[in-house]
Amino acid sequence: QVQLVESGGGLVQPGGSLRLSCAASGSIFSVYAMGWYRQAPGKQRELVALIRIDGSENYGDSMKGRFTISRDSAKNTVDLQMNSLKPEDTGVYYCNLVMVPGTKYDYWGQGTQVTVSS
Fold this sequence. Notes:
The protein is mostly beta strands. The chain is built from no helices and eleven strands.
């Protein structure tokens, strides 16, 4: 079993910043990628950012230049620094760990709420 524990969500005003953290534990034999996805009410889950084992990164289009993903491979943690937050960034943010792409070894956290509102 693999567990992902997210922290750092909350309420922030537009233009503010938040930092999300995710710690993975359990039977982790390999890490291909870790990342963050979000889901707003009534919308599909979308990519926020991910970082692969080789250090390459991907960001959702609306997050580029505002969000930064980082990881600690030794600790199996991944952080997401979110700056210049907008109301449309509101949603539940989920941590994801992929050990082997395209297989059952793909895990999700329970999510942390981020609300951007004045």
